[in-house]
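Page 37, continued from 36.
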């Protein structure tokens, strides 16, 4: 599998990262083991998990499934989300993150985490406190690199600047949602990350499955699918616009003899500034399909067709910014 550099770390990670959000949920241990085995066999070396996925079970399964191969992968996890009903068991504060890292190390069965990411911003803590705590964890040898996820543009830049000013371990990556049905980060986050040499690791590159072609109408949702399991998600994800984008993906896929999932993933994989999209799969068959997204490129006219179908109207000030700077 093609390798890419994780921001400015110099560390080479595979172009497709393996996500583990299904582990302990749609994928039991055996399915997860098969997914991990196939991913490693295909040359993948980058695995993303989080403490909150099934409240620790996904981390445990990931650690067990990797077993003695742990050192072969760049292992990323996240903390900050509630791990219990205890109000002390959450947040991006020093107290919780320090304990959360210890708990993740135990569940993953490892002495170090390669990339530790703050899962979501926490407006109750100055970002400087969060980053100072993570710097201490780097210096203690518990984590190697620091990443953020789902941060707003201004917060991210503030964090980057704080690390530089204080000489703390820098933010090396950002993990935002990005797909043909969720292109908002093109406005702020992607240019910001490119300008600062930060790796971008898109989550839900298939829009949670919407871009695989399995959903043709909001009223016809397969029961054994993520959206079949959640009416709220189905309502949110299966808008008319999103279904039209899925149709455009299907048309390109048919024309070039690929699957919808491969086309949608290939598009994300080759967007400027993207490092490694994170794959989600409930079984090895889905993973196999998704691995076929790598090693080729969509033609320019196919990219244009997908762009046209999925483009979002520009909100202020981006609309005027473009007009004025084109004068
Ligand atoms: N930082 C964050 O806040 C955040 C949030 C979400 C996820 N993530 C990370 O990103 C990873 C990927 O996210 P995601 O799972 O939402 O990604 P996704 O690729 O958009 O969706 C994956 C889901 O789509 C369906 N699917 C995948 N491949 C398929 C195929 N070839 N054919 C048919 N259906 C297929 C499966 O769901 P069904 O079979 O159930 O339909 C699968 O669970 C996660 O594992 C996690 O590591 C991070």
């Amino acid at each position: 599998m093609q390798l890419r550099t994780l921001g400015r770390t110099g560390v080479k990670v595979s172009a497709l990262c393996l996500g583990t959000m299904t582990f302990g949920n749609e994928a039991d241990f055996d399915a997860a083991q098969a997914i991990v085995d196939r991913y490693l066999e295909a040359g993948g070396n980058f695995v993303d998990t989080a403490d909150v996925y099934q409240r620790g079970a996904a981390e445990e399964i990931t650690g067990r499934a990797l077993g003695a191969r742990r050192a072969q992968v760049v292992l990323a996890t996240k903390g900050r989300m509630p791990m219990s009903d205890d109000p002390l068991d959450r947040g991006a504060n020093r107290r919780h993150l320090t304990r959360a890292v210890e708990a993740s190390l135990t569940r993953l069965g490892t002495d170090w985490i390669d990339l530790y990411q703050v899962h979501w911003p926490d407006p109750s803590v100055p970002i400087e406190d969060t980053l100072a705590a993570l710097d201490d964890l780097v210096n203690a040898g518990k984590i190697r690199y620091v990443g953020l996820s789902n941060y707003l543009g201004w917060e991210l830049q503030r964090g980057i600047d704080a690390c530089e000013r204080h000489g703390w371990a820098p933010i090396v990556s950002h993990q935002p949602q990005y797909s043909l049905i969720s292109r908002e980060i093109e406005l702020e986050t992607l240019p910001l990350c490119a300008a600062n040499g930060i790796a971008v690791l898109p989550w839900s590159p298939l829009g949670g499955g919407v871009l695989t072609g399995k959903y043709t109408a909001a009223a016809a949702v397969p029961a054994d699918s993520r959206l079949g399991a959640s009416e709220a998600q189905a309502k949110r994800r299966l808008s008319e616009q999103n279904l039209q984008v899925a149709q455009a993906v299907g048309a390109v896929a048919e024309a070039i003899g690929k699957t919808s999932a491969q086309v949608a993933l290939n598009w994300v994989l080759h967007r400027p500034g993207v490092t490694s999209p994170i794959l989600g799969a409930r079984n090895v068959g889905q993973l196999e399909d998704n691995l076929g997204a790598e090693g080729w490129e969509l033609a320019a006219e196919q990219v244009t067709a997908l762009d046209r179908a999925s483009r979002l109207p520009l909100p202020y000030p981006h609309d005027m910014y473009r007009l004025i700077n084109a004068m």
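The mean pLDDT is 97. Flag for discussion at group meeting. The pocket of NAP is lined by residues 19-22, 26, 48, 119, 149-150, 175, 203-209, 212, 214, 225-226, 261, 278, 280-282, 286, 289-290 (CB under 6 Å).
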